[in-house]
Amino acid sequence: MCFGIAQANTNVCSSNGNCFATNYCTCFPGWTGSDCSTRIQGFVYTCGYATNGQLGDPVSQKTSLYRIQSWYSFQSINQVSAGRGYSLTLSSAGAVHSFGLNTYGTLGTGDTTSYSTPQTVTKGEIGNRTMALIAACSFHSMAVDSNGVLFTVCLI
User: Fold this and answer.
1) What φ, ψ does residue 130 adopt, rounded to 5°?
2) Domain residue spans in the chain?
3) Which of 115, 128, 129, 144, by CA, is between 20 and 30 Å from 92?
4) pLDDT for position 70
5) Which pLDDT belongs to residue 134?
6) Buried b (16+ CB within 10 A) or exposed e, 55-82
7) What is the pLDDT of residues 41-62, one digit of tens each?
8) Cα atoms found within 13 Å of the Cα of residue 9, Cβ hemisphere only
9) Is-contact 133 79, C-beta < 8 A?
10) Which CATH class is domain 1-39?
11) How many CA atoms lie within 13 A of 71 on its CB side?
């Protein structure tokens, strides 16, 4: 039973999740709150060729239809940018996430490991700052913080 509604009832967890235990809902992607009644805005949808993980989906290699990426169900995304085999996202809280090909260190993770799921950029000087803008280019990435300071990353 969750919040007075039986676990088998289709209205449990505001019809946006599953009742896991007494008064404990696990929300579907895009919903949050103790009873899954709050809609999260700012979803990320991806499609295309993804052999480098640039869609942020470790399962898909390519898709011609947009698919919601459920790994962002916990936060709102304000900006996305696509580079050469990699992608960046900027959350409403000012955090940068990166995924895909990282041959030139463009993900800003402090290594050259490629990732097929989003990595929160916490390395270097942008890790403790609130970012306002991002840009993914062919061989480098850029971010601007809330004070207007430009940061770049590249190994070339």
Assistant:
1) -90, 115
2) 1-39, 45-153
3) 115
4) 67
5) 95
6) bbbeebeeeeeeeebebbbebebbbbbe
7) 677 778 788 788 888 877 767 7
8) 11
9) yes
10) mainly beta
11) 15
Q: Residue type at 44?
A: V
pLDDT of residue 48: 82
pLDDT on residue 142: 94
Q: Give residues with Cβ within 8 angstroms of 137, minimum separation 6.
A: 83, 84, 106
Q: Kindly give the parts of the chain with pLDDT less than 50.
A: none
Sign, CA dihedral 49-55-69-93, equals: negative
Q: Say if 1-39 and 45-153 have the same CATH topology.
A: no
CA distance 110 to 127: 11
Q: Are 53 and 99 a contacting pair, CB within 8 Å?
A: yes
- Do residues 136 and 82 touch, judged by C-beta distance below 8 A? yes
How far is residue 34 from each of residues 14, 16, 31, 42, 65, measured CA to CA in Å? 10, 11, 10, 20, 32
Q: Which CATH architecture fits 45-153?
A: 7 Propeller (2.130)
